[in-house]
């Protein structure tokens, strides 16, 4: 069975096709600048070099058609015809409290995703465009949606409620949902496999730190708390997002600077975080370089980032009353030995001890970086959200047959 995984954004569409008999990715790729001039399609087949094509792709239906053309191309394709694709799986960011697990797409599911547009205005409308684009190109194919929020649906009320008037939860569903759930789920399972213990017996802090960043307390395989909130703005300091701040700052700044709702939203989501503090970059590679060269703004950005990360790890250890493993994943977590080192070196109160040599190793495999003496296992696990989406799609479509 072959499954096509799609992650549709408002002007982009990422894809990956899997052969589920072996769980191997046959090809991946992305379409960027949809709806703009000079749209770009990058196709990366497993058997040959990647190809890049520049053309005009005005909307998602054309983007999906171009992807299907590449997948079936005699030279760079990986399948002979579209009929070889048995199902399509989509990433959907916000499932609200409507969707606690992945589901097969039908009219009710589409209405549900649409009813959540207010909660995820940048994401859910784009995901619906992806679903409709697949319908237009492959009318009878089963489609499955996998929600970023679903893994966090096990959070207890005390973790997901905000201490504000309850009517806001009843009327507008204001609560913590959490994101990156597919990744936190995947890396916690791989962590358990890697250390050879059942996930049901473990307390794990999963650190998904990429451009967006979130931490999750995973107890017995279930999310019991997570740092992102009703939106992906809360929690850690990120590339361009502020993370936690005193909520009173928002009306104060709006008043003092005469900002609109959209302007303050844009400030907190796109012009804050590492970018705002360093004044130069949202990319941790450049921040680290600046810090190593003694540049004061980059140094402050780096220190704030690590300090918050450590505070969150500490608070989740307290939330679970213990920890067996801490795991790093995503762009920064998988690649930055310096961030891992600085984060772990002040977790000695937990008995954390990492091996500097193991920490330096670069690999695509899950690996331990803690010493045999460490009281807490520390791991690096490359995340694979696409594989999780393909697995859920395969399972649901097979069960429905
Ligand atoms: P992601 O959102 O998971 O794709 O992560 C992207 C981010 O990972 C980039 O913006 C970089 O800041 C970061 N990143 C990638 N490679 C490295 C590296 N070698 N060192 C530090 N940060 C990195």
Automatic annotation (TrEMBL):
Binding site for Mg(2+): 7, 385
Main location: cytoplasm
UniProt-listed SUPFAM superfamilies: Actin-like ATPase domain
Residues reported to bind ATP: 14, 208-212, 283-285, 331-335
HAMAP family in UniProt: Acetate_kinase
Subunit annotation: Homodimer.
Function comment: Catalyzes the formation of acetyl phosphate from acetate and ATP. Can also catalyze the reverse reaction.
Protein name stated in the entry: Acetate kinase
């Amino acid at each position: 069975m072959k499954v096509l995984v799609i992650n549709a954004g408002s002007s982009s569409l990422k894809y990956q096709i899997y052969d589920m008999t072996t769980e191997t990715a046959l090809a991946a790729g992305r379409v960027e600048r949809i709806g703009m001039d000079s749209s770009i399609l990058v196709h990366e087949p497993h058997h040959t070099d990647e190809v890049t094509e520049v053309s005009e792709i005005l909307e998602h239906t054309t983007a999906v058609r171009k992807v299907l053309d590449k997948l079936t191309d005699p030279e760079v394709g990986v399948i002979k015809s579209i009929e070889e694709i048995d199902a399509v799986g989509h990433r959907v960011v916000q499932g609200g409290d409507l969707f606690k697990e992945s589901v097969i797409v039908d009219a009710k599911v589409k209405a549900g995703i649409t009813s959540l547009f207010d909660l995820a205005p940048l994401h859910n409308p784009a995901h619906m465009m992806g679903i409709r684009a697949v319908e237009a190109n492959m009318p009878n194919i089963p489609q499955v949606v996998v929600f970023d929020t679903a893994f966090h649906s096990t959070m207890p009320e005390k973790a997901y409620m905000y201490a504000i008037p309850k009517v806001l939860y009843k009327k507008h569903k204001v609560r913590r949902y959490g994101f990156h759930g597919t990744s936190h789920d995947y890396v916690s399972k791989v962590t358990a496999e890697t250390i050879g213990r059942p996930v049901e017996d473990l307390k794990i802090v999963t650190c998904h730190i990429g451009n967006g960043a979130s931490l999750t307390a995973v107890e017995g395989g279930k999310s019991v708390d997570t740092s992102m909130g009703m939106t992906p703005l809360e929690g850690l300091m990120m590339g361009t997002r502020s993370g936690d701040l005193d909520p009173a700052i928002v009306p104060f700044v709006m008043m003092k600077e005469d900002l609109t709702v959209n302007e303050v939203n844009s400030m907190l989501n796109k012009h804050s975080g590492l970018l705002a503090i360093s004044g130069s970059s949202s990319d941790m590679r450049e921040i680290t370089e600046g810090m190593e060269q003694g540049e004061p703004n980059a140094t402050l950005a780096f220190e704030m980032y690590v300090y918050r990360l450590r505070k969150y790890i500490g608070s989740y250890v307290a939330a679970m009353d213990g920890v067996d493993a801490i795991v790093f994943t995503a762009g920064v977590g998988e690649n930055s030995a310096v961030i891992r080192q600085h984060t772990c070196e002040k977790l000695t109160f937990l008995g954390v001890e990492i091996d500097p040599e193991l920490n330096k190793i670069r690999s695509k495999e899950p690996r331990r970086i803690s010493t045999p003496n460490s009281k807490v296992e520390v791991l690096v696990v490359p995340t694979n959200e696409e594989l999780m989406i393909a697995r859920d799609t395969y399972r649901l479509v097979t069960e429905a047959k």
